Amino acid sequence: MTARTSIHGEWSTRLAFVLAATGSAVGLGNIWRFPYMAGENGGGAFVIVYLLCVALVGLPIMMSEILVGRRGRRNPMDSLRQLASDDGRSTVWQYAGMMGILTGILILSFYSVVAGWALAYIPNAASGIFAGATAADTQAIFDDLTANPWALLFWHTLFMGMTIAVTVRGVRHGLEKAVRILMPALLVLLLIMVGYAMRIGEFEQAVAFLFRPDFSALGPQGVLAAMGQAFFTLSLGMGAIMIYGSYLPARTSIPRSAVAIALMDTAVALIAGLAIFPVVFGSMLEPAAGPGLVFVTLPLAFGEMPYGSFFAVLFFVLLVFGAWTSAISLLEPVVTWLVERLEFTRVQAALLAGGVIWLLGIGSVLSFNAWAEYTLFDRTFFQMLDDLTANIMLPLGGLFIALFAGWVMTRKTSGGELAGEPGWFYPTWRFVIRYITPVAVLAVFLNAIGLV
Ligand code: PHE
User: Fold this and answer.
1) What b-and-e string marks burial along 137-163, b requiring 16 or more CB atoms within 10 Å of the CB?
2) pLDDT range class, residue 1, cuts 50, 70, 90
3) Ligand 1 centroid to 260 CA: how many Å?
4) Ligand 1 centroid, distance to 111 Cα (angstroms)
5) What's the 199 CA to ligand 1 centre distance in angstroms?
6) How far is the CA of 394 from the centre of ligand 1 (A)?
7) Which residue among 62, 185, 273, 439 is the one 20 to 30 A from 25 at the CA level?
């Protein structure tokens, strides 16, 4: 019973898994979403809550997802169903997996549009238009792009095509190599940007903004946004890490892998913040500028740097790679579900799921131009999806996974997957996942809807 195998194969080593999962975690969430969310929610206090959520909510849930995935060896829905029935529990838990699959579809639909912006910026950067640009110029470049639905559609289509192409071949091919080289390259480039931002921007002001907490600036909605960001950036609550866990060889340490992934991911986000905010303050830009923040600020820095066009091209290429390795993990749960449950071939499954997601993405494309006026609760279609998935669906999915791993799985089954760890580990993890994590998620939810 314990020796189930995945029909999609296994990672060759623990490192391969850590690289792939880091590839999933590190992406637009770190470089595009983190700075813009921190900027909109006042900085320091948001960052603290986000870091707390990574440690107390994200890490234990990440371990749970890997554990469930490895033991179930199937798509998220079937892994949950299988493990529930193994332990004689109700199989309704599988619907948490179903919701995760749906969440992945919704996220990828707008994620691909933003990744399309990064793609569009590659030829932009190469043409040298950032050289000597002012803040008004870079803002105009961004506005011109997003005002043009055909351009957005073109880049969104290209990015979805790239994502489908990798998924068709199976995620294990190529992902490992790509992540091993490109992730360190992205990190080094971001550090160069930080160095440059220190020289040309208002570095101290940026550090104060990011790390000096002002809790009066962070309302209940800001706390919810910080928790949502933690889920989004760690790829948790929808089955991406679970599906990668299902390809993990038995006997590799789950907690060590999870800690490594979370550390890398958090480092990239903070470094991205330190590269962007000095430029924001140095150029008198608005931290709360919204989703365009990175696309308006970093080009300013590139515009003044020696070899700026070269670095800009490199940066957007690496950003696209980061987004690509994340997008692949967003598509994988629904594809494995179609293959395992409905017996599609991988090619059919990737084309069908990718096609539906592409279609849905058109809504996000239009929400920056033709549909910009159509809002619900003051939010465009794109903002609705971004909010709904990150702030509600991912934390809810994470809550279900925590409850599942802590309360539904027996000691024998969850303990079996964590057997190789030092003696203190299992009881600590189990306590956190049963009490701390679910209570924290619930408290943030209740607080946000005004109940506590
Ligand atoms: N973690 C990815 C990022 O930060 C996005 C993602 C979310 C990927 C959820 C998979 C699942 O860009």
Assistant:
1) bbbebbeebbeebebbbebbbbbbebb
2) very low
3) 16
4) 9
5) 31
6) 11
7) 439
User: Which atom of ligand 1 is nearest to 265's Cα?
Assistant: 4
Ligand 1 atom closest to 322 (CA): 12
For a mutational test of ligand 1's pocket, the pick from 37, 108, 110, 326, i.e. the residue with the most ligand atoms closer than 8 A to its C-beta, is: 326
Which of 238, 250, 234, 240 has the alpha carbon at shortest distance from 70? 250
pLDDT, tens only, 129-172: 999 999 999 999 999 999 999 999 999 999 999 999 999 887 67
Residue range 13-36, pLDDT digits in tens:
888 899 899 999 999 999 999 999
Confidence of residue 174 (pLDDT cuts 50, 70, 90): low
For residue 316, what are the domain limits?
Answer: 14-448
- Beta-carbon contacts of 391 under 8 Å, excluding residues fewer than 6 positions away, are 224, 225, 227, 228, 448
Determine the Cα–Cα distance for residues 246 and 171; give it in Å rounded to an integer: 12
Q: How far is the CA of 235 from the centre of ligand 1 (A)?
A: 4
Q: What is the pLDDT of residue 190?
A: 93
Q: What is the CATH number of the domain that holds 359?
A: 1.20.1740
Q: pLDDT tens for residues 370-412?
A: 999 999 989 999 999 999 999 999 999 999 999 999 999 999 9
Task: Supply the DSSP string of 197-229, one letter for each residue.
Answer: HHHHS-HHHHHHHHHS--GGG--HHHHHHHHHH
Residue 29 in domain: yes
Counting from 1 in the atom list of ligand 1, the atom nearest the Cα of 330 is 10
Residue 5 covered by a domain: no
Residue nearest to atom 6 of ligand 1 (CA): 235
The confidence score (pLDDT) of residue 2 equals 53
Residues 70, 248 contacting (CB under 8 angstroms): yes
> Residue of the nearest CA to atom 10 in ligand 1?
235
With respect to residue 103, please indicate whether it lies within any of the assigned structural domains: yes
d(CA 119, CA 166): 17
The reply to whether 145 falls in a domain is yes
Alpha-carbon gap, residue 225 to 288, rounded angstroms: 14
Domain count, the chain: 1
416 C-beta neighbours (distance < 10 Å), count: 14
